[in-house]
Amino acid sequence: MDLFSNIDIEPARKRIAELTALIDQYNYEYYMNDRSLVSDFEFDKLLRELIDLERQYPELASPNSPTKRVGGEVNKSFKQVTHRFPMLSLGNTYSIEEIVDFESRTRKLLGDTEFSYTCELKYDGVAIGLTYRHGQLVQAVTRGNGAVGDDITTNARTIPTIPLRLHGDYPDDFEARGEVVYPFDEFEAFNRQREADGDEPFANPRNAASGSLKLQDSAECAKRKLQFCMYFMMLPSNADDPTGLLSTHYGRLQAALQMGFKVQPYIKECRNIEEIRAFIDYWDNARWSLPFAIDGIVIKVNQVKLWDSLGLTAKSPRWAIAYKFKAQQVSTPLESISFQVGRTGIITPVANMKPVWLGGTTVKRATLVNADFIEKMDIREGDSLLVEKGGEIIPKVVGIDMQKRQPGARPVPYITNCPECGARLVRADGEAGHYCPNQDGCPPQIVGRLEHFVSRKAMNIDNLGSERLEMLYSKGLVRDVADLYSLTREQLVGLESYDDDGLRRASIQDKGADNILNAIDKSKDVPFERVLFALGIRYVGEVGAKKLARYFKNIDAMMSASVEELAAVEDVGEKTATFIYDYLHDERHRQLIERLRKAGLKFTTANIHVSNVLNEKVFVVSGVFSRFSREEIKAHIEQHGGKVSSSISSKTDYVLAGEKMGPEKLKKAEKLGVPIISEDDYLKMVQE
Ligand code: IVH
User: Fold this and answer.
1) What is the pLDDT of residues 58-100, one digit of tens each?
2) 14 included as an active-site residue
């Protein structure tokens, strides 16, 4: 180190401390108190300055710097961590009588001791434990199986309501437990974006929160806008109590609030069963007005010193219990059934019902899934449907209100022809639903395929939303995906379309036309695996397309493969293989692929040949790796002249084993005497 950098470092240290304090304060006010103290512009400027300084002086960058909120670090695998104190679950019940029993049992066990309860919300998210030492967040771990969880610290640091540094008085070493929830509005916006990108939406906020915490890219997690609701402070029994708040659960949560945690204000100290019951009844209705999901109420003995005397059952404490809300159900008349046509021609019946208030929203439509569902449920004309809303946002039809059935009501008829193009519907043997076979003439199928083709995970052609695609189709300019590649500027400029009320739906001007044509041109560089996904073959998703592309390397090999050969690809079952086979042997699809090939799209994998050091040696890859994903390491082997096989045999030269390698593979390798090498051994081998 030279003399000058030592001189420089002091002002930098000072400025970093100033910026950190300022940004922390702005964040705190914004996320905890809903108050913006500066403009976004000013905030970004300060953050940028801090990022730059930390880049210049990495030795001064704290792991809890507010710059970690935006993420950017990549988690290759999540380290398994044993909880210092197991994360217990709670006894839970749907029955109020059992809550009454719990209360009287607790009172009996505690005899003359004076005590109270706390009632609070049971957050419906993902449980995590946060360890703080000397006021700094040092580790975040998921509940996992209660004994061992995953280290998700990097992702947790991006959640604004998880304090990175604590304020005021705090115990020197403790764990804050709580639930990570995905607020409804953020979740819905995120799911809408997923659908627009051609991704499967998440079923509920809980699953989405869980998936987000396990993202490899923490910057992606930062975008998800998750929230942490603290519900428990885990302290060693001899912990100091400078504020005098730590002897009750209620006090601990107040202390946590002062330390900078987000603690929901909906917590009440209750003295008896009537107060507990009132709290439960209130929230059973009011829960839908909350910005996030809850699935019940948690009741805890408030006085911490009584917890030890009440003790534990096999897996949950005797001093707490959870009351779970039942799903809300209503009965409402079915008015009609409409039928939607998906991009693969699948018909989805949808119930149009008399609008009814259920769980915080008006419900008037719900899926009836397919013809099988309607038959099994035996839906008759004039029926009223039972609709339920559980933790999920999407209402479900769960049955028929038999008391309202009209005598002699006839089963609802199912359509025989496509509601969009009139073609006769097909129902293949063993299939639960119908589909419209008119793939070349049925508008929603054609536009649906176009939408899928241009979506982000497929060809990523920006600037072509549904309205514009519908316009291009209705004007006769684009009838299939290959037509996109012969569009001209003259055709596009000045296009306009209107809806039934005469309002403009879509239009394209000069700049828009240039952008569209550029994006279409750029899509010619999209790799084969995404082109394969973009074709929209039924059951071939993003991952399946990747595996097929890696396995066959080009479309010609796929076209000449038998169903059995297609099914040999990992995760491709017999049914999918048959669909792929039929798709590729349909003359119309062959012609389409030819036209796309002529337009310049990629139908082979790029074979990047880096070296020949692996000299045709055969590798079997198993387990999880720290530097590569499994697909990446397989590609790496091939780029260096090696071969990859899926099963161990006498021809295997090496088994490349990551963490959690399957025991069967291990046994087989040992039996055949195949050397098992680690990721590090492998890298050394390649470097040599
Ligand atoms: S207290 C020993 N309080 O519910 C006490 N848990 O089986 C441990 N949960 O997975 C938990 N909201 O993650 C507690 N206000 C709350 C809660 C809560 C949600 C979850 C918790 C656990 C499950 C209980």
Assistant:
1) 999 998 999 988 877 777 678 889 999 899 899 999 999 999 9
2) no
Predicted local confidence at residue 456, as pLDDT: 87
State the sign of the Cα–Cα–Cα–Cα dihedral 395, 400, 402, 407: positive
What mean pLDDT do residues 507-525 have? 94
- Map out the domains of the chain with their CATH numbers: 2-61 (1.10.287.610), 92-97+116-271+290-316 (3.30.470.30), 329-402 (2.40.50.140), 443-525 (1.10.150.20), 528-599 (1.10.150.20), 618-687 (3.40.50.10190)
The tokens of 286 are what?
A: 């009011």
Kindly write down the DSSP assignment for every residue of 497-548, as one continuous string.
EE-TTS-EEEE--HHHHHHHHHHHHHGGGS-HHHHHHHTT-TT--HHHHHHH
Q: Which of 210, 231, 297 best tests ligand 1's pocket when mutated (most atoms within 8 Å of CB)? A: 231
Helix (H) or strand (E) holding 10: helix 3-33
Q: With beta carbons less than 8 A apart as the criterion, state whether 280 and 297 touch.
A: yes
Q: Give the least confident one: 49-53, 168-172, 638-642.
A: 638-642
pLDDT, position 638: 85
**What's the pLDDT tens digit per position in 420-448?**
999 999 997 778 889 999 998 999 999 99
Closest CA to 599 of 459, 466, 468: 459
244 CA distance to ligand 1 middle (Å): 24
Q: What is the pLDDT of residue 405?
A: 95
- Residue type at 6? N
Instruction: Report the C-alpha gap between 211 and 567 in whole angstroms.
Output: 29
Atom of ligand 1 nearest to the CA of 88: 2
Is there an atom of ligand 1 within 6 Å of 481 CB? no
Give the whole-angstrom CA distance, residue 293 versus residue 180.
11
Percent helix, percent strand, percent coil in the chain, to nearest 5:
40, 20, 40
**Between β-strands 294-301 and 267-270, what pairing exists: parallel, antiparallel or unpaired?**
unpaired
- Phi-psi category of 135—alpha, beta or left, where left has phi over 0 and alpha has psi -120 to 50? left
For ligand 1, pick from 123, 279, 310, 315 the residue to mutate: most ligand atoms within 8 Å of CB: 123
Q: Which of 122, 262, 546, 665 is catalytic?
A: 122
Tokens of 592: 């389409």
pTM confidence score: 0.69
- CB atoms < 10 A from the CB of 97, how many? 8
Separation between Cα atoms, residue 330 and residue 364, nearest integer Å: 12
170-201 confidence digits (pLDDT tens): 999 999 999 999 999 999 899 888 877 777 78
Neighbours of 25 (CB within 10 A): 14
Write down the pLDDT at residue 199.
Answer: 76
CA of 127 to the centre of ligand 1 (A): 7
pLDDT for the residue 357: 87
List, edge to edge, every strand of the sheet that includes 361-367. Answer: 361-367, 347-358, 328-341, 384-389, 396-400
